[in-house]
Amino acid sequence: MSFLYLILGIIVIVFAFKFNTFLGIGIIAAIVLFGIYHFIPSYYAMKGNQAFSAGDDEGAVMWYKKAYDTGRTKIELKSSYAYLLLRTGRADDAEKILDPIIRVKGITPEKKNVAKQQRCMVYYKQGRLDEAIEEAEEIFDGGNYVNTTLYGMLGYFKLLKNGASEDTLKFCEEAYEYNDEDRDITDNLSLCYYNRGRYEEAEKLSDAVIKHAPEFLEGYYHGAQIAVKLNNYKKAQEYIDKISECKRTAMTTVSEEEVEELAKEVKKNNENSIA
User: Fold this and answer.
1) Alpha-carbon span 196 to 170, nearest angstrom
2) Which of 1, 82, 95, 257 has its CA 20 to 30 A from that of 111?
3) What are the average pLDDT values for consecutive 10-residue runs of the chain, which has 275 residues?
4) Ramachandran bin of 55, using left for φ above 0, alpha for ψ from -120 to 50, beta for the remaining angles
């Protein structure tokens, strides 16, 4: 289609110049201005992606906001903007971006489900866990939209709601069968085993998570918890020390207070073992 527009544009310019030189120049100028106008949102988004790749989350938000404020952003860009807002702790603002997408009748079910999936995280960040679970299960139960992210997210929500239940275990094992290489899914199943007192099995999965995702803050924290249960305080301390090297965002599910409490417990036990 773009190629067809290009051919038509060339034809129009050629005929315009045959008719009047100034008319031809005017049409070229109009086409250039229209191209700039049309490309601006994508340019802003590109700058946002560059900022994100450089680790500048706030810069990425600024550029995506510029794109969004043009009023001409595609749904995919809006979803990316909502993710950045979530990542930087602006859950309420993300909800304002996602709700209109979900209400649109003409978009594909896949695009709508992407927005709904993100809104589940909004609900979770807003402390609305039951609503987050309800919407995630609604998407999941449709059967036509299943992916690794949804498995990992819903598994984590189930762990928060009832971490030792048979239902949670069954779901986390199902997710692991779906993708046993994903860090969140593997970490969820490790946590599930931990909650049920199956510490050796939890440790095996935890070690795999840390090996394949060495910058995963939650992985080190949960690994340290497991090590404590296994009375391996040296290993727990090593993991606690690694946490300070990991990047923290608003999407991080372990608070600094939780890390500090665990660090105190590990330090105390290490000191007792030396004494």
Assistant:
1) 13
2) 1
3) 52 54 54 60 88 93 92 90 95 96 88 93 96 93 84 97 94 96 98 97 97 95 97 95 93 95 88 62
4) left
The count of other CB atoms within 10 Å of the CB of residue 207 is 15
> SS3 letters for 26-75?
HHHHHHHHHHHHHHHHHHHHHHHHHHHHCCCHHHHHHHHHHHHHCCCCCH
* 80 Rama class: left (phi>0) / alpha (psi -120 to 50) / beta: alpha
Neighbours of 180 (CB within 10 A): 12
> Which amino acid is present at 21?
T
Instruction: Locate 271 and state its tokens.
Output: 């000191």
Half-sphere exposure of 78 (CA within 13 A, CB side): 22
Question: Which are the contacts of 165, defined by CB distance < 8 A and separation ≥ 6?
Answer: 158
pTM of the model: 0.84
